[in-house]
Specification:
Structural class: alpha/beta
Radius of gyration: 29 Å
Shape: globular
Strand content: 5-15%
Helix content: 40-55%
Low-confidence stretches: 96-101, 166-178, 193-197, 717-723
Strand order of the largest sheet: 1-2-4-3-5-6-7-12-9-10
Number of helices: 22
Number of strands: 12
Mean pLDDT: 85
């Protein structure tokens, strides 16, 4: 063998060794980099957990509004009423309004401003029961007054005791409250009076307050990232609702003397929904940096707070039922509306589900289903699994003929329309800021059908669809203010990444200057090279999220109550009404009316004199159903009512039965008492955008007014159940 050949073979072996060693080195280097990245991610996760659970953690067992009403600071306020929030608010209104979840913050409703003016308010605002006044500044105007009470719960559902200013359990509570608490303790534990040491709670103070007089009560359960601390925005939101309710009752007083002396009481159900002290971060580092890290830290607490909301649910429901019993005393005509927002909605949905299922099973054909709690329960953008709603829908569905087929005659379907009577009022309603029209999106063939220029049975429907799609296009151009938290974020935490993939697609479409797939019939413009390269990472992430293996595909478990739309049938067009093969999910729609003075934000301090009109809306629901007798009441529309009496108005927002012009037949009967409402952003926007006066008015009209011929007061409901 020649020397040259041996040398060549040696070089070849060395090249192979170098290549092998290079590959091994590259793999080891990649593994080291991967390990470093993984280690950095683990350290970051541990750092966030350390920050959330140690450095930035809120107090685990702390009541913020537990001063007993008999203390001098509280007693004087209850006797005279506090105008401080409205007074200081009028001064701050001169400055520009800041922005939050729905693009507006009420600068005239800030407890922090009152404390900044006088530090004594830091103590006074801790009272468990307060009386606030919004004074009128006009000659002949009427001041608005209401009470504000608090019930706070620890993470195990234990209520908080009232305390004196030094923090010890208060012993100076009036004798009537003490006797009542002792009697309750003796009955519960079977102990003699000498062995009873009652704990006087916030609930006892509210029971005493509500036991006399006439009351209109709004109970509000707050959600994630909130609690009852002074300055919390959800407390301010409840004050805004209470002042609106006082204004609406004042408007009804001249024509109905029974409401003139009705006291508005707002009850704030507090719990540790804020796991991270976000306000502290903002105070330390400013709104920009502090707000960013607050959002980042709080985002990791959804899993942590949701189980707590469900653990507290039994205690919260029992407390609300105790107040309901107090308000239902014979001869009274009190009213109670219970609302829960976000995880507060989850708390109500969790605590009431079994009661509602049982009520449906016990319901007798043709009789009105009585209210489940108070007069009406409203879930606002509830962060709760759709299965908690579909469990109720399935109970109703099992008892009724769903649609006519070879085995079910049409006469049986029509007969079952009478399962609930025509005067049935809603008893449980969920309202969620929806993403787009139509529910389920547009199919490729829909646009061709919508564009047809022919005279047929669907001509008028096509015109309405074109008009609504034009509005949808303008909504997209301005940005659709849907509830991102329950539509996209909640499923992600439930290990369903498909909504997040849709979100990334929509973001990419906006960068490219076109509308998302399935939401418009407008021809998309060509995408430039620069925009295409810019959105390529988003498109790639979207594809990975949509096709990620082993993700949760059970939509009823991963989607929230208001973001589960019934699937559209394979056949039919948008103007058709074909039965869905899975008739569970959203049932109604809500739109704004563009009413003068209503469809806007009214600052708290101006409500006594604002150009605000919320007239009675008696019998509108019955008239809406009557206007659709040709369709057995289906697809009723509160904007199209049968003729009524003088002074009978429609509601302040537009309610529609069924998902109209979507190709889906209504999945509930016209008289069904359970409304799962998809709301457009001109009525309810984003996650916290429930402050429009039109929306507040519409909710209160459902309770304040006799929207059907059914009784509307709590005692009347009880009387109606007596044979």
């Amino acid at each position: 063998m020649s020397v040259k050949r041996v040398t060549a073979q040696g070089e070849q072996r060395r090249a192979i060794y170098r290549t092998a060693f290079g590959l091994v080195g590259g793999v080891l280097y990649a593994l080291r980099i991967t390990a470093r990245i993984a280690g950095a991610l683990v350290l970051a996760a541990l750092g966030i957990l350390f920050l959330n659970y140690v450095v930035l953690s809120t107090d685990k067992a702390h009541a913020y509004r537990n001063l007993d009403p008999s203390l001098a600071e509280c007693r004087d306020g209850l006797a005279k009423g506090w105008t401080v929030l409205a007074d200081t608010g009028r001064e701050t209104l001169r400055a520009a309004m800041p922005s939050d979840g729905d693009g507006w913050v009420d600068a005239s409703n800030d407890e922090g401003a009152a404390i900044a003016a006088d530090v004594r308010w830091a103590t006074r605002l801790r009272c468990a029961l307060q009386r606030h006044v919004v004074p009128s500044r006009e000659a002949g105007g009427r001041d608005l007054a209401y009470h504000l009470g608090f019930i706070e719960f620890q993470e195990d559902g234990e209520p908080y005791a009232l305390v004196s200013r030094d923090g010890a359990s208060d012993t100076a509570i009036d004798s009537a409250m003490l006797r009542h608490a002792m009697d309750t303790e003796m009955r519960a534990k079977g102990l003699p009076a000498t062995m009873v040491k009652p704990v006087i709670t916030q609930l006892d103070a509210l029971k005493k307050h509500l036991s006399t007089g006439s009351h209109y009560v709004i109970a509000f359960v707050h959600g994630w990232r909130h609690d009852a601390r002074i300055g919390d925005r959800n407390v301010a939101d409840l004050r805004l609702y209470a002042a609106h309710a006082a204004r609406f009752l004042a408007q009804r007083c001249p024509s109905d003397s029974s409401v003139c002396d009705m006291d508005v009481t707002a009850i704030y159900v507090g719990w540790r929904g804020a796991r991270v002290d976000e306000r502290g971060l903002q105070l330390w580092f400013g709104d920009g940096i502090g707000g960013f890290f607050g959002n980042l830290s709080a985002g990791a607490t959804l899993f942590d707070r949701k189980p707590v909301s469900e653990a507290i649910a039994p205690a919260a429901i029992s407390a609300l039922r105790t107040l309901e019993t107090t308000l239902s005393a014979p001869g009274t005509h009190n009213k109670l509306i219970v609302a829960g927002h976000s995880l507060g909605g989850n708390m109500l949905a969790s605590g009431l589900k079994d009661d509602v299922v049982k009520a449906v099973r016990r319901h007798r054909f043709g009789e009105a289903l009585p209210p489940i709690l108070g007069n009406l329960v409203v879930l606002i953008n509830p962060a709760s699994e759709a299965s908690k709603w579909t469990a109720i829908q399935r109970e109703v569905w099992m008892k009724l003929a769903d649609h006519a087929d070879a085995h079910t005659p049409a006469s049986e379907v029509e007969r079952d329309d009478g399962s609930f009577p025509t005067d049935q009022r809603p008893v449980l309603m969920s309202v969620t800021a929806a993403l787009a029209f139509p529910a389920g999106g547009l199919r490729p063939g829909d646009c061709a059908w919508i564009g047809l220029d022919v005279e047929d049975a669907f001509t008028a429907a096509r015109r309405r669809i074109r008009s609504r799609l034009a509005a949808t296009d303008s909504m997209f151009d301005a940005g659709v203010d849907y509830d991102w938290a329950t539509h996209d974020l909640f499923p992600t935490f439930k290990f369903d990444f498909r909504p997040a993939a849709g979100f990334l697609d929509r973001v990419a479409a906006r960068f490219e200057g076109r509308q998302p797939r399935g939401e418009s019939c407008s021809l998309p413009p060509p995408v430039g090279l620069g925009a295409g390269l810019l959105t390529l990472p988003l498109r790639t992430l979207s594809l990975l999220a949509a096709t990620f293996p082993f993700q949760n595909t059970a939509r009823e478990d991963s989607h929230t109550i208001g973001n589960l739309d019934p699937p559209r049938p394979a056949a039919g067009v948008l103007a058709d009404a074909q039965p869905s093969a899975a008739p569970f999910g959203t049932t109604h729609e809500l739109l704004g009316l563009d009413a003068p003075g209503l469809e806007r934000h009214h600052p708290y301090a101006t409500l006594a004199d604002a150009a605000l009109d919320c007239p009675r809306a008696n019998h509108w629901l019955t008239r809406a159903r009557m206007a659709r007798t040709d369709r057995r009441g289906n697809f009723w529309d509160s904007a199209e009512l049968a003729p009524g009496g003088a002074g009978e108005n429609g509601p302040a927002a537009r309610f529609l039965h069924g998902l109209q012009l979507t190709g889906i037949a209504p999945i509930t009967r016209p008289n069904d008492p359970f409304w799962n409402v998809r709301a457009f952003d001109n009525a309810l926007s984003r996650h916290d955008g429930y402050r429009l006066s039109s929306f507040i008015c519409a909710l209160n009209q459902l309770v304040m007014d006799d929207i059907t011929d059914a009784p509307s007061s709590m005692s009347d409901h009880q009387d109606a159940q007596i044979p």
